[in-house]
Write a structure and sequence with these properties.
The complex is a heterodimer of chains A (about 280) and B (about 650). With about 280 residues, chain A is mainly beta. Chain A has one helix and 21 strands. In chain A, the strands form five sheets. Chain A has a five-stranded antiparallel beta sheet with strand order 1-2-3-8-7, with no helix packed on it. Classes of the chains: A mainly beta (about 280), B mainly beta (about 650).
Chain lengths: ~280, ~650
Amino acid sequence: MKFFKTIFTPLLAIALFATSCKKEETNPGTPVDDPLSEYVLISETPATTLDCTVKVYAQEALFVGYNYILVQVKDNATGEILDNPDVMFMPVMEMNSGMMHACPLEQPTYNTSLQVMEGTITFVMPSMGQGKWNLGLKLKNTAGTEEDINIDVDVMQKAEPQLFSFVSAHNPNQNVFVALVNPRMPQIGINDFEIVAYERQSMMSWPALEMLNIEIDPEMPTMGHGSPNNVNPIDMGEGHYLGKVNFTMSGYWKVNMKFETATNEMMKDDAFFDITF
Amino acid sequence: MANLTFSQSLLPADSIYMSGLLTQIELLSLIDTLEVSENNVFIPIERLIQRTEGANIISRGNFAQDPMLRSYKNSQINVTLNGMRMFGACTDRMDPITSYAETSNLESISVSHSGNADLSSSALGGSLSMNLKEASFSGNPKTSGLVGTSIASNTNGYNLFGQLNHQNKKWGLFLQVSTKEHGNYYAGGGKEVLYSQYRKINTTANFAYQLSKKEVLKVNFLYDKALDVGYPALPMDVGIAEATVIGANYQNFHSGKYINHWEAMVYYNTIYHEMDDTKRPDVPMHMNMPGWSKTFGTWLKSETQQLGNHKLSGMLEYFQNFRRAEMTMYPENEIEMFMLTWPDVMRNSGGLGLKDTWEINSRWNLNSSARIDLFYSYITTDFGQKHLEVFGYDVEDGIFEPIFSWKENLSYQLNENLKIFTNLAYAERSPDVSEQYGFFLFNAHDGYDYIGNPEILKEKAWQVELGFSQSFQKIDWSLKGYFHHVNNYILGRTDSAIDAMTIGANGVRVYTNLPYAILSGFESSLNYSINKSLTIAATAQYTYGTESNGEPLPLISPLQSRLQLSWKKKSWYADTEVQWANAQNRVNNNFGDLPTSAYTLLNSKIGKDWQLGKLNLKTELQGTNLLDHYYRNHLSWGQIPQMGRNITINAILKL
């Protein structure tokens, strides 16, 4: 069929005016100096003991939900960015009540092309008004010297929540936290639908929750219709569940979700994410 | 067929040209065979089409009715304007392209039936060609003008047009401007049909230049704009429907030893169509639904000299059509919702048609014709392609479809009076943009949202027709019967897994192929000249349509007939017509059909030509549905009644 496209394309060009509705936005390849320029710099902090500078980046301002966190460590002596530095996330929230708790996270791994350590932190609460988030990092150099770095960060609640929590109807002692991973940039048509599920076992222990059975059912509440050919998210390991969601038009969508245990006991049958685009 | 387009353009604007092969222009002879344009000029174009043999129209209101030929509709029939392809820009067929012409700017309408109806036909259900009035030449330079107006009682509306015609040896110019404005119409008994008003203007220009004794160059321009058009059968009206058409045509005559003439054309047309629901009360949510259709095309036609007892003609054609339609909804206090209903679809088509006219001997004639078209359709944007992903289709590669049609027409002159003919045709049709790529298109007739199916197969039909015509001194009559077996007939199939998009819709239907459908029927006509001033004309037509499972096909007319008595004496003329339609109880409820009762209508008119010095004035008083009968045509959507009694006063002044 490509053959026909090649034949017809010149003809198409002749009748150029016939295709005015076509929009193609191509950015001419401008060289990007800083590979991290598309990310938001969250903080730049000195590590005095290790004589390094630590820069923390994220895809956007930190929010309640699943955040990609990028950490770049630069040796102050040489000015070089370190390859595969030893970095661990240890985020802690200090609540106004004085209580402290951590949150779910995925420890960073090295991203060669960006020369950063890349991981995720799922903030479960906003900082504003309720307390202070400390994005704690533990750095270790090759000699084995460690340094803890405290970074106070603001975590906001998005207008459209990216995380919800519930107590399992099946097990009242189980607190479940679910965050939306994808779609980040929803569009009309088929979209990956990925969520991540964690359990709060204690204030400091937030393991991933695996083996759940999840059903999704997107709808446009304003119109009262849904969409066909959605794929229920399935367990991808480490709390991640991946499926497909179809949006037949842009606007306000509500993706309804049902959570069941591995043995099909109902945990929550009226959860949802709002997705507007 | 080909010779029609070749020759008619050189004839004076008001003469009727009828090729022996053509059964078309019935409309002209039915109403008044002599003063064609002036006698019909105030009849809306769709009503004229309806008067041709085997034709019907689907009404969604009082404007832009959708033509049907032997119960084939939409893209099953090939509709052209002066040989130019045009495609409506409305996903809901509110603008069949006949709605962008005007009766007053037409020279003629040609209708022919079944597959391979003419060289330019790439559909299986026949051809409808609207031929624009064109400029011509004259040895003595002359300039003439014409002004016509009509006032209608039922719609409290008017039509007005003016024409200017200049001819000289070297060049000719034809100009027309027309406007019309009609309010809501009233059904029989006086019931007002709300949202049935419309306004429209149309400008047509044609310039002809004689390049040499054997060569003519013509340039056509048409601009048409309808505003505030009501569609009582639909949930929405139309704010703007606007078309611009330009075309250039080169004709070469007496071209050589073998080639009699040839002709080439290049054209472009663009349509913008915008639905409008702002005037309707109780709209659940305001919507905006604009659509665009842009067509570029070119063709070459030629006809040979008489080569022994053969004559060959051919046509080579290319066109491309781009269509996009959008829907934006505006919920209160919420973000707007958007989608494409025609997701940026480009269709390309190249075709070659050939025809041989063979006079076997003085009694036998055989016309053989064949045409092949290569269609290639694709979605031009990623954004558009993503829409079809929703249903699991990968449409990145586009759809290629070869379309083939072939026809044999054999006729036998049994004796001076009796001629018998038979047609055998095989024809195919490519699925159209809506059938392949439509995205939640609401059909108000059955109340379902329709979704295209990129995997849908082309329709293929075998068509047989038999007929005869007998002519005597005062009477001639004809009877034709046909049987069409259409494989892969395209119809919607309910898919309950998909939610409807339109609020209040019954569900979703996906275009699908039936194993087959059958369309068969007959047409008959009779003309009787009682004496010099009295003529009787009668017609009858019937179609029977059935799906492969025995269910009736939706939207099939019952038996219809017409009897017309025409009188003419000196400058006076009059005619009276009775129209019948049987009840239609053979309906498909699944597709929104409801039984329709029989009805009888009485129409009449009387007119006179006045010669006032050099001026010629024609005045006419016309009444349709004189008995003010409340009735519904079976092909009307939404159970809307047709117009009640309408008295019009028409006048045409020739300068």
